[in-house]
Amino acid sequence: MTLAQELENLEQMRNRGALSEAEFAQAKARLLEPTPVAPLTRVSALNGLRRSASDQWIGGVCGGLSNFTGMDAWLWRLAFALMLILGGTGLLLYVLLWILVPLESSTYRTPLSSNP
Hints:
Helix content: 55-70%
Strand content: under 5%
Number of helices: 6
Structural class: mainly alpha
């Protein structure tokens, strides 16, 4: 039901006597006020991280990070390669993300995903 239809229904209810003036004003204000959206917390934002099923070379970690952050996947691959060369942490971090981050399903898309 559209906003105009809701307002029309309220007006009809007021005219029939089903709503008092105060109830009508309160219901109308509730309809016209935008619903506040709770801001994303860090944890709820992080829950959107998924490994990519379409942009993957090994496990889809870099493709998933690309969808999540908006950075190109090749930049993530380069970062992991540099971490691997410079101390081996890249491999450990990649394997941990591969194990802990779930694979995206066909119905799930991350907020920054450019795929339809």
